[in-house]
Amino acid sequence: MLIQSQIKRVVAVHDLSCMGRVSLMAAVPILSSMGLEVCPLPTALLSCHTQYPEFTFLDLTDEMKRIIANWKSQGFRFNAFYTGYLGSPEQVQVVEDLIRDFRRPTDLTVVDPVLGDNGKLYKGMKAEMVEQMRGLIRLADVITPNMTEMFLLLNRTYRHDNLQDEELKIYLKELSDKGPAIVIVTSVPVIGNPHLTSVYAYNRNGNRFWKVTCPFLPAHYPGTGDAFTSVITGSLMQGDSLPLALDRAAQFTLQGIRSTFGYEYNNMEGIMLEKVLSNLNTPIQVSSYELI
After folding, report:
1. pLDDT, tens only, 129-169
2. Coil, strand, or helix at residue 280?
């Protein structure tokens, strides 16, 4: 008889970059620090993440299938499924099959629809992946697109200026209508204040919209989106409400950026997670969420 794990398990479907705190190298320490067992399902093995000028890349699609088949044969069960970077339409199909085969009614599915940023697809990301991701989010309970990904999923022209709350609420609800009960959009500019940035969220259960605003620091660190969604996943698995999860994720990401910002440091390595992981086990000091 298979003994049930006493700790909640999260399948983390991300690439594994050997240099840079992104993808699995962000998800594993964050979720583990939040008391969850992380079961990695790597989509690819890279020497370093793709924002470096050179990197090696090993596609692991076939190995993903073998891993999943092994899990199925041994009757393993999981409490959450959390997906990030997927490198091909075939990998999207593998993930869809994983969710359909393993998910129970009480399990959580979080999809970070990694497609692009700043109005453009990421390097190596094909337009076909946008359509595939539109299919995957139908299976999700929670999605966490940035602004670019929001417009891609909605098949709308990208904009980043003068987006009013009422317009954003329409977009969030349109995305929720495609499947996920919770839609969280990150990196939303604050009109008239370039020193602030916001996260908007919609929960179809209760028909409520939330917003968290925090300072914007003029530095780019790969992996902050992975860190944010990992904390969202961990918080919801711990039983936090959506607004509390938003607060926790936004504050942790900001703490990570601030802890890194003052150093003479190669930003490509990502935020110094090691300096702030302990903060995940402390109570939220100041709540900044708003009901809109």
Report:
1. 999 999 999 999 999 999 999 999 999 999 988 889 999 99
2. helix
100: how many CB neighbours lie within 10 A of its CB? 9
| Residues 52, 7: Cα–Cα separation, whole Å | 36
Neighbours of 146 (CB within 10 A): 23
Top-level class of domain 9-291: alpha beta
Instruction: Give the residue with greater pLDDT, 123 vs 134.
Output: 134
3-state secondary structure of 198: strand
**Residue 62: which residues within 8 A CB-CB, separation 6 or more?**
none
Contact residues for 107 (Cβ-Cβ < 8 A; gap 6+):
78, 79, 80, 81
> How do residues 80-98 score in pLDDT, each as one tens digit?
999 999 999 999 999 999 9
| Positive or negative torsion for Cα 102, 112, 237, 291 | negative
Q: What values do phi and psi take at 2, rounded to 5?
A: -75, 125
Please say whether the beta carbons of 9 and 71 come within 8 A. Answer: no
Residue entry with tokens 């840079």: 20
Copy the structure tokens of residue 123.
């390097």
Give the start-to-end residue ranges of the domains of the chain: 9-291
Confidence of residue 212 (pLDDT cuts 50, 70, 90): very high
| AA identity, residue 265 | Y
- Strand, helix or coil for residue 273: helix
Phi-psi category of residue 259: left, alpha or beta, with phi > 0 → left and psi -120 to 50 → alpha = alpha
pLDDT band, very low/low/confident/very high, at 287 (cuts 50, 70, 90): low
